[in-house]
Amino acid sequence: MEGLLLLQFINLAVKFLSYSTIFASSLMAEQSILVLFQLQKRNPSDHYLRTINKDFDGDLEQGLGGFISTEEAINVLVKSYESSEIFQQVKQQVAYICEKKGKILEKKGSQASFITQCIVLTKRSFVNMCRDLGYYWLRLAIYIALCLCVGTIFHDIGFTYGSIQARGSMLMFVAAFLTFMAIGGFPSFVEDMKIFERERLNGHYGVGAFVVGNTFSSIPYLLIISLVPGAIAYYLVGLQKSFQHFAYFALLLFACMMLVESLMMTVASIVPDFLMGIITGAGIQGVMMLNGGFFRLPDDLPKPFWRYPMYYIAFHKYANQGFYKNEFEGLTFPNNQVGGSPTITGEEILRNIWQVEMSYSKWIDIAILFGMVVLYRLMFLGIIKIIEKVKPIIKVVTSVPPTQVQTDT
Fold it and tell me: Helix 70-82 and helix 2-16: axis angle, to 10°?
């Protein structure tokens, strides 16, 4: 406690008077003759912190081979400061400030418009993402390595009957495990959240501006991650060659990346610790993978919970069906089944083998995914707003008055 009081006195002195006066007052005690010599070698604040630090309580060198304990050093500095003229001047200055009358300070928000806030936050977030190697660049390198592995394992997959299962497995890996790696940027986003919370309390900008800035700043990086590794995997495997099919493939991968980041934003608003957040986000995506329609076909999912509503909540349902429709529609494969027609069309494969809903086009699937992106971002905004209003109430309810503590003890 004495150490804290001493730091408070020194802090007040630093605000109103020069360092030289502090040095002079410190030299008043006979035991502090070598303080000036110490300050010449060390920052003044570091010297005082080292002198009063009791964490590693040991004897301090006094000079002429003598040593004093930390407790004695604190007492010497406190007495020296209280007996100095600087202490009286600080008390007079504080009393003068307290007697002055003025208007009550009011907390005002940012004077900048919402659009200006969004532009500034977008630029700042874009620069931070570019400088932070772990945010996107490391993930890009891992994605390239994974897509090279996928491309070489499924290289030139062909159009045989066995390629039907291989295509479905490859597309499922892209929809599930490649997008799963998007949680790698969660620790960096948690750091951004800490900065946001401090600046939010200071009234610099609102939650909406933060969400908009983070969304637009991440789009270029997600596009790069979707296009470069996606092109490697797509053309090495030998999927449909037209540019329209590849563009849909990359756009759907981009939507899945953005959706997972939006999901992790929602997780970060509830679980701010990055380790617990990664575990929570991975668990949520794991459950969605199981209900995506690949490990268990839609008709085989147990009802009512896993089929309704979990199957429709999992974004992998729409990602898998979008990839399947984009790849199989318009193709024809040889049919190895006995008693059947010699060929089987892509539409029959989608309907009978993968049990894909054919009542709507593949563009509806991608529209649903972008809608889920907006939904998750709005959920993040709403959770932050609710936490801001509920947290003070929880503190009031859980706080115990000092009188009650005394009566209990």
Answer: 40
The answer to whether residues 230 and 359 belong to one domain is: yes
**CA Rg, the chain, in Å?**
32
Distance CA 186, CA 270 (A): 13
| CA separation for the pair 212, 206 (Å, rounded) | 10
Q: Give the CA distances from residue 234 to residues 242, 277, 328, in Å, rounded to whole numbers and listed in that order.
A: 11, 32, 14
Q: Specify whether 17 is located in the same domain as 131.
A: no
Q: Give the separation between CA 274 and CA 342, rounded to whole angstroms.
A: 55
**Banded model confidence at residue 387, pLDDT cuts 50, 70, 90:** confident
Number of H helices, E strands in the chain: 19, 4
| Cβ atoms of residues 315 and 256 within 8 Å | yes
Say yes or no: 89 and 122 in one domain. no
Alpha carbon dihedral 108, 113, 114, 115, in 10-degree steps, equals: -160
Per-residue pLDDT tens digits for 337-365: 777 788 999 999 999 999 999 999 999 99
Q: How far apart are CA 394 and CA 322, in angstroms?
A: 45
Q: Does residue 273 share a domain with residue 382?
A: yes
* 40 backbone dihedrals φ, ψ, rounded to 5°: -70, -20
- DSSP class of residue 298 equals G
What is the spatial distance between Cα 166 and Cα 389, in angstroms, rounded to a whole number? 51
86 and 152 co-located in one domain = no
- CB-CB contact of 217 with 129 (8 Å): yes
On whether residue 296 sits in a domain, the answer given is yes
Residues 6+ apart with CB under 8 A from 332: 159, 343, 344, 345, 346
Q: Which residue has the tokens 């309390």?
A: 201
Q: Which domain holds residue 28?
A: 2-94
108-112, 252-256, 280-284, 322-326: segment of lowest average pLDDT:
108-112
pLDDT on residue 101: 67
Is residue 134, in this structure, part of any structural domain at all? yes
Q: Is the pTM of this model over 0.85?
A: no
Q: What angle do CA 349, 350, 355 make, to 5 degrees?
A: 110
Our count of domains for the chain comes to: 2
**Number of C-alpha atoms within 13 angstroms, CB side, residue 81?**
24
Asked if residue 183 lies in contact with residue 268, where contact means CB atoms within 8 angstroms, the answer is no
258-281 confidence digits (pLDDT tens): 999 999 989 988 886 888 989 999
Find tokens 């804290």 and name the residue. Answer: 4
